[in-house]
Amino acid sequence: MAAAAGAAAGSTSVTVMYKGYVYADTKVPTARPGIEQIKRSHDQMLKKNIKETRQEHPLFVRGFDKTKLNMEISPSGVCVILPADKKTAEQCLMNQPLHRIAYCAAIAKNVYIMLKRAGSGAKDGKYKCHGFVSASDADAIELCKLLSRVTNEAFARLRHVTRLLEAKKRAALKKKPDVVARKVTVDFEQPWFHGKLSRPEAEKMLLGASATNGLFLVRQSERSETDFALSFSYNKRCYHNRIMQDATGIFKNTKGTSWGSLSLMVADYGSPHEDMQTIITEYVGNKPVGTDEEGAPSYMNVALVQDQARALKEGNKFSMSDVKDALSEIGTGNEGPGADGDIAYDPIYDDNRFGFGDDFIQQTLGLMKGGMKPAPEMDLDNVMFSCGEIDGEADC
């Protein structure tokens, strides 16, 4: 292959020229692209001519079919650089992570790389085929072999890390929890108990929380150590049920109902009761939102539902610390290239819904060129480089 200077350690840089790209979606969304899509993309690029258009891009200013580019391939990705000249500085034209490469093949001295289109899901079959030109037929074949090998090593690494993470998750599910004594929370430590609090202050707190039906708190009288009140809201009004504690520790209300603790009273009023206008539901916590060391914000019932929904949504995501631990256990995988540059492609690694995404990929494979991204007007994904679709219906 025609090597280019300046490649970083662990990477290979080759000299190529660019041809453009073709939208090469598969007819069956779940099907993997292969040599047929490559051949049709090749034919489509032969029909189209973009060499004389869009003069604002340096590739066209220098001469589209004459400008040599540096393609750098590493375990992190594929980066295409436009070298600096007397008029323009070096420019990044493409920087793609390896997990987006679905297939590659050589036709004569042309190299075609099938890439999953950014933002598309795992099963929608949307791809772009980018075309490059090598110095010779032999160089094109060698470049395909290199791309296939490096990409397969990346997928092997991704699958190995995934297996380790899944095994850790299964082991955690099977582990029996330690048997510990049940913690008994006394009344005065309950999050709904506010200690000494005046009626006006209680009403201010309830009304400040929109006074939804059943919102409550329990407070102690400012005048008596044995007098308490259940303050709650109903139909945008505040009510205060007096609770008295006798010498034996029993709590009673003014209607004669009694309980052994304030917690039993709260549990009792959580169901329809003849003493109450409504059932109590959510409580106003005794600590400001975000300050409770137990993690319970003011409106615990609502917050729990929100936290559970958030946990369910994020349940498939992997902890980056777990990914780091998994990486420390493995070496470099090597699946090797198959026939015609076949790649053990798996679109699931480009789909956030399955717990993967940019963070997982960057942690596992690293960043090519420090994550350098081409400017939109310089990107080889820019529409100016489109040669249409493989069916030839679009124009460029």
Decide which structural class fits the backbone.
Answer: alpha+beta
The backbone outline, from C-alpha atoms, is: elongated
DSSP summary: helix tally: 8
- How far apart the termini lie comes to 31 Å
Helix percent reads 25-40%
User: What is the H/E order?
Assistant: EHHEEEEEEHEHEEEEEHHHHE
Largest sheet data: 8 strands, mixed
Number of strands: 14
Can you give the mean pLDDT? 77
Weakly predicted, low-confidence segments: 289-316, 332-340, 392-396
Computed over alpha carbons, the radius of gyration is 33 Å
Short description:
This protein has 396 residues and is an alpha+beta fold.
What's the arrangement of secondary structure elements?
Blueprint: E1 12-23, H1 35-47, H2 58-62, E2 69-74, E3 77-82, E4 91-97, E5 101-107, E6 110-116, E7 127-133, H3 137-174, E8 193-196, H4 199-208, E9 216-220, E10 227-234, E11 237-245, E12 251-253, E13 258-259, H5 262-268, H6 300-313, H7 320-329, H8 358-365, E14 386-389
Parallel strand pairs: 1-14, 8-9
Antiparallel strand pairs: 1-2, 1-7, 2-3, 3-4, 5-6, 6-7, 9-10, 10-11, 11-12, 12-13
Describe the structure.
It is a single chain. By secondary structure, this protein is α+β, with helices and mostly antiparallel strands. Helices cover 27% and strands 22% of the residues. It contains eight helices and 14 strands. It has helices spanning 35-47, 58-62, 137-174, 199-208, 262-268, 300-313, 320-329, 358-365; strands spanning 12-23, 69-74, 77-82, 91-97, 101-107, 110-116, 127-133, 193-196, 216-220, 227-234, 237-245, 251-253, 258-259, 386-389. The strands form two sheets. Strands 1, 2, 3, 4, 5, 6, 7 and 14 form an eight-stranded mixed beta sheet that branches. The chain has a six-stranded mixed beta sheet with strand order 8-9-10-11-12-13.
